[in-house]
Amino acid sequence: MTATTAAAAMNPRTRMLLEAPIAPTLLRLALPNVLVMLAQAGVGLIETYFVGKLGTDALAGMALVFPVVMLMQMMSAGAIGGGVAAAIARALGARRRDDADALVLHALVIGLVFALCFSVAVVGGGRWLYTRMGGAGGALEAALIYSNWVFAGAICVWVFNTLAAIIRGTGNMAVPAYVTVWGALVLIPLSPLLIFGWGPLPGLGIAGGAIALMAYYVLGSAVLAWYLWSPRSLLRPSFKGLQLRWPLFADILRVGLVGAVSTVATNVAIGVTTAMVGGFGTAAIAGYGTASRLEYLLVPLVFGFGAPLVAMVGTCIGAGQRERALRATWVGAAMAFGMTEAIGLWAALFPATWLSLFASDPAMIAAGSQYLRTVGPVYGFFGLGLVLYFASQGAGRLFWPVAGNLARLAVAVAGGWLALRWNGGLAGVFAAQALALLVYGVVIGWAIAGGAWFGRVGWPSSPAGLLRRVPQP
């Protein structure tokens, strides 16, 4: 088959990832994805807003659980989900359609196993964990109620994010976007209804927020599954006569498991910091937890650019276009850095604008403002490291993103410990977090710029030169 014939037979969406101008294509794919991630982040903010009306104990309880919830979210959507999307993108880029279809079942099996692990670990060990993070009294009880409901339904989260990752791996960012946005619109009335009650329906308190969240994931999973098995889907998954194959599991897990190490390091850093802040009281936990939600909001925003990068980089590498994969990576990195740095500077200048959305306790706002003024100005480096992590998933080269995240964890933990030991107070703990984010972005960016993926790849000076250097089938 000639290159021209192969291109003509290629799916238009795959051809777009391989041939269309990089920056406009990334923006086109990222826009619906950014909307979906904003909506998904809005789901958490909606909950926080209404739970904040229950008092400082409830808000602190959510702050204790939040790093663990985000660990599950980031693993299912970012780490394992990224491995799923990258595997499907590489299979489509290499024109292995049967493998791409078979990867659907393998991805769902992996998601179900991880969901079971989260349910058993967190429901069984929640009290021990949240106590170690500084939880006590009403805050601890609120944390346990919310946590038990969410992690009993962990399968809902994993199935939703796995299905969304499968669809994004084909280059389709719009369907997960529509499902998430409409789900968020349903959650806006459902969450306060279950938390506070209405008429004959009794209020369930903080448990109502968790139940509303699980309902959102159940409904969203049903819609995503319907699309995936419809004629509109690029994939044609079928479980009839399909046998599980270890090479397909390995194709997902060799990226997903390494990415999971990075995700765990990120959330351990947040969890350890929460424990350090816990020594300064419940209001400090609530303030830090509410402020750091903005940092977690950056994760889905960067994911809006990262998911198209996983698909584009993976498809280009599957087709042998290394130069285009690297160009796409740096275009996406510039976009993500600019967006997250702008948000961080705004937060540092006007911290109370964000914090007062959720509560009015002066001590909570003071602690949260101190965090945002210290850490906000380096949010651009967090965005840089994170988007390069997603691009590295597409490339299947995750050593340096993991190394950068482990370096971040080491700086955050060691710096925070030294700050407490030397009586640096909250200011010292927060300064260590800022330095950790700076190290995270610089380490990953320096490594990829230095040729960590493929060695130094010479880029052609023109699109024609790029086409000449692409290996032909």
From TrEMBL:
Signal sequence residues: none
Protein name per the record: Putative MATE family efflux protein
Superkingdom assignment: Bacteria
Membrane topology designation: Multi-pass membrane protein
Keywords on record: Cell membrane, Membrane, Transmembrane, Transmembrane helix, Transport
Pfam families xrefs: MatE
InterPro entries per the UniProt record, alphabetical: MATE_fam, MdtK-like, Membrane_Transporter-Flippase
GO cellular component: plasma membrane
Residue stretches spanning the membrane: 25-46, 58-91, 103-123, 143-167, 179-198, 204-228, 248-277, 297-318, 330-350, 370-391, 398-420, 426-449
Subcellular location: Cell inner membrane
Source organism of the structure: Acidovorax soli
GO MF annotation, one: antiporter activity
